[in-house]
Fold this protein.
Amino acid sequence: MRFKKHIKILLDALYTYYMCKKFSGLQIQSEAKIGFGTKIFIGNKGRLVIGQSSYIGADTTICANSHIEIGKNTLINKSSRIGCAEFIRIGRGVMIAHGVSIYDNNNHPVNFESRYKIAEHRYTSDLISWEKSKKKPIEIGDYVWIGMHSIILKGVNIGRGSIVAAGSVVVHNVPEMTIVGGNPAQVVKYLS
């Protein structure tokens, strides 16, 4: 068992090194690691900054067509998705459970005729570009905990120390020190 753990640590370290060499827009601070198998895509204007001692879990996908900033001591668990067309800031000490999706854009046109053209062209149309979708920045405050399979959508600010219950869809701002849950997420409890 200990041998498997050491192999995982070694693979994560090598993978982190490989990713740093592959992407000029990737900045990893000391002790931060990227899990083996994580997919990172950084566009021409994209930038991804991963803070000190943070960890991005295996099989996570991060698309940075703009600027993503992840604070120190933050954990993004496996199989999460982050798509950035404008700006996403994730504070320090944040815990993001597995299977969480965070998108600061619509990821597709809302107009049905445009969507039909995309399908008609087998998803090769320039209409699928994030540049043409509606977008607003996302700010996730320090010490936030986001439960598994939650979805955080464009324009949302999640206040410091808040908790997003598992399976929630966050479409509105979340005040500091609250627990929110549901679809759409609503305040369930105020923390002291």
